[in-house]
User: Fold Gibberellin 2-beta-dioxygenase 8-like protein from Carex littledalei.
Amino acid sequence: MQEVRREISEPPLVTSYQALLQNNDLHSSSLKNENLSVQEIDLPLIDLCNLQSENRENSRLCAKEIVGAASDWGFFQVLNHGISLELLEKIKREQVKLFRLPFEKKVSSGVLNDSYRWGNPTATSASQFSWSEAFHVPLEKISDEDCNYGEFSSLREIMKKLAMAMSSLAQTIADILAQNLGYTCHDFPQNCDERTCFLRLNRYPPCPFSWPETGGGASGLISHTDSDYLTILHQDQVGGLQVMKDSRWVSVRPNRNALIVNIGDLFQAWSNDVYKSVEHRVIANAKRERFSFAYFLCPSYQSTVGAYAQPSRYRSFTFGEFREQVQDDVKRIGRKVGLPRFLMDHAEQHIHKQIDF
Assistant:
């Protein structure tokens, strides 16, 4: 009986992926080798308890570690981050139950205000398809009395606590990165609050189009950079997250006690490339499902993202302009271009280097 319910709960990923493969060879070298990783690594690991140390040197060194990782890797892990393991376990349990809903109910019931997403509706090839499902929830909707939690009433308070804790952590890290560039915590980031930030609950189902022996097959989440200031991620122990480092993919070894932080496009632009927004992806697992959830620190769509210092490599743009450009590129050429579109000395030949038309 449990297997029947599990099957019904699955989105039609198989059907959609097979349709995209109709004009492609399923075992082509591109699909077999696209996801091949070089090695498994540990991201830089930073103990945030040192930020509160009475020893100012310990606090200074901790901040220096954060700045160094944001500049070199664009990704790092944090321990003693102030979010209890009990809260993380609670949201994971609720998350699992939520995704076990029948697919049609997830799509049509309006749970969490129609925030359910699956696959990639704009994909025109298998390489653009994400083998995953998610609930993409703006923070202001979490505490909204009109937000539909359906049969998951216990999820409301847990998500409210998680959103508050993640927001506090994101602000702490953003303050450190801004202060390193000479800004005070009151100057940056601006217009980032529950009206603009959001949580995303992710599930990556087992994928029959995954070949561990070659590292190929479907992507759980296709290669991308994040269109925000910074992201905080909690993942389970299944693994699958990969990060681009020195022009090569590396697999991130899961750490049960750590949260992952990564720099987004807006922070790279604002910092004038001091901090790096790097490509990352999730590799689909052939046998095991994977769960994660992420917090995204975003400004309002009207907020201008200008570099903190001049001369700037990027022209000023609003978050709304950036999102519109990303959506237009995905629609026209099948993938995100991102920051190269906003370079001050932007030229078409640069874009052609980034994108294979």
